[in-house]
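During the first year of the project, the team set up a workflow for recording each protein of interest as an amino acid sequence followed immediately by a discrete structure-token representation. This format lets reviewers and collaborators read both layers of information side by side without switching files. As required by the reporting guidelines, we include two representative entries from the current panel. The first entry is reproduced here exactly as it appears in our internal archive.
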Amino acid sequence: MTDISAIEDLLQPHGLLVLGTLDGIVLVGNAGSSMWPAFSSSQESSDGLPHPLDRWSRRIGTTVAVELDADVVFPFEGPPYPPVLDWARRAGQAYPSPISLFIHQKYGLWHAYRFALLLRGPPSGFPPVAHVASPCLSCPTQPCLSACPVDAFTGDTYRVDDCVAYLAGDERSECRQRGCSSRRACPIGVELQYQTGHARFHMNAFLAAQSSSKN
């Protein structure tokens, strides 16, 4: 039987934490820039090879899984891709937001799932699933929708091409330097906004992925 404290002890040196649990599935990721010091000083971050964060996540996730005698799956491996976001929604802690990203009731838009541990036996010490309402439902102004400089978000759609054109056209923009303006406008978890270097890493990776998909 695996106790949650054993998992947390293995994750803590890497700046990772348990973001939700569901039927023996343990969702692991970062809140804010908790993992940035560990990742940015890693071999994967500096070796110049593609997908450094995915490779770092795979190494850490595999190591933790071996220690726990568990299986592990990664949201970036597929197809078929594991339904990590569906697990997060069913765990009752995260929901789709008006700007497509999932919002966590505690960590806001500043969290990400790096891998999921699939335990072989019933866990212990895990809190029961307690569904909470999406914080977006009680946000009357939804400033995330009006903060985008190119109105890429409508609440129903995300105009990716408009977003990419703006980011690619102005390297000094607030979005490019500090992260998505709509994301930063959300009032939930503002203290967890990504550090500047962390934010730039993700924006550059996003642009590179969009460029690669069109080639």
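The second entry, processed by the same pipeline in the following quarter, appears below.
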Amino acid sequence: MPSSFAELFLRLLHRPGQSRTARTVEWFGWFLIAESPLLVFAPRWTAALVHLPDLGDPGVNYFRLLGLLEGGVGMLYTVSGRLNAEGFLFATLLDRPVVPVAMAILWWLGLVPGPLALIFSLQDFGTFLWTLFTWRAERRAAEQS
């Protein structure tokens, strides 16, 4: 068990024995955690940044709710990546490719603006590919050993 602050901090930065796949999931979680305060504390600025139309008061509150949800999901990804939870790592390979499909449907129905759907789709699918390629490389390396 780490005894000093420096040891705890180093363990926060790099977990011994963590797989590369777990690291990709953890980094995606950190990205979501970093993104969520923008949605919670600066929803109008964030919406303007991605060229969304004026949100109005209800839209601002929904954006904030989305930020809270994103922060929670980010924490789940971060902790699961840090713990090297292989079942969760595999589950992320199943759920993240669904996001672009869901966003396309929501956009088609006029429920989500195009720029927002595109950003979420690119973010989730891009990190899915990163995790998938890392997971496959680790499996090939394990088979060759």
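For the second entry, the following points were noted during internal review. Residues 29 and 73 are 7 Å apart (CA to CA). The chain has seven helices and no strands. Both points are flagged for discussion at the upcoming steering committee meeting.
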